[in-house]
Amino acid sequence: MNKTSVPSLDSLDRQWFLVDAENQTLGRLASEVASVLRGKNKPTFTPHLDTGDFVVIINADKIRISGNKASQKIYRRHSGRPGGMKTETFEALQARLPERIVEKAIKGMLPHNALGRQLFRKLKVYKGAEHPHTAQQPQVLALDPSATAK
Questions:
Q1: Are the C-beta atoms of residues 55 and 102 closer than 8 Å to each other?
Q2: Fold type of domain 16-65+96-144
Q3: Helix (H, G, I), strand (E, B) or coil at 46
Q4: Quick count: other Cβ atoms within 10 Å of Cβ 93?
Q5: Where does residue 10 rank: exposed (0-12), middle (13-18), buried (19+ CB within 10 A)?
Q6: Is the dihedral of CA 108, 109, 115, 121 positive or negative?
Q7: Residue boundaries of the structural domains of the chain
Q8: Is residue 22 left, alpha or beta, with left meaning phi > 0 and alpha meaning psi from -120 to 50?
Q9: What order of strands is seen across the sheet that includes strand 139-140?
Q10: CA neighbor of 26 nearest in space, from 102, 127, 109
């Protein structure tokens, strides 16, 4: 009979990856990054543990989407008060807070529980090309070449 081994949290080797979002399609980028945050690219992947890596995304303001989503896609948030629903189009949110678009897309692809919230903390998104994580020496994450927008 074979025994399943669960990796100990001490033995996990967490790496830092850098992703340039310039000219990347939003959904394809988000699914690749969510997979790395979750740790699905490692042989030590365990569904109930945080085995993933840290991801730094730069140039979030240069993300691409297809079709008419720029004017038709709506982002909603609620203050929790009666009548507190706020809506905003993709164009308006990209002009105001481009990081939030990428964060929301990736967060929706993570588990919706305490593990997902823990995984989301390892995501760092910046609208420009500068980021404060150079001390961690992030490696450039090679995304699928077919994921780039034309």
A1: no
A2: Ribosomal Protein L13p; Chain: A; (3.90.1180)
A3: coil
A4: 19
A5: exposed
A6: negative
A7: 16-65+96-144
A8: beta
A9: 123-125, 54-58, 16-20, 139-140
A10: 102
Q: Scanning the structure block, which residue is given the tokens 């340039």?
A: 20
Spell out the per-residue pLDDT of the chain, length 150, in tens: 788 778 887 778 899 999 999 999 999 999 999 999 999 999 889 999 999 999 999 999 999 999 999 999 999 999 999 999 999 999 999 999 999 999 999 999 999 999 999 999 999 999 999 999 999 999 999 887 665 545
**pTM for this one?**
0.90
- How far CA 113 is from CA of 16, 108, 118, 119, 131, in Å, comes to 23, 11, 9, 10, 28
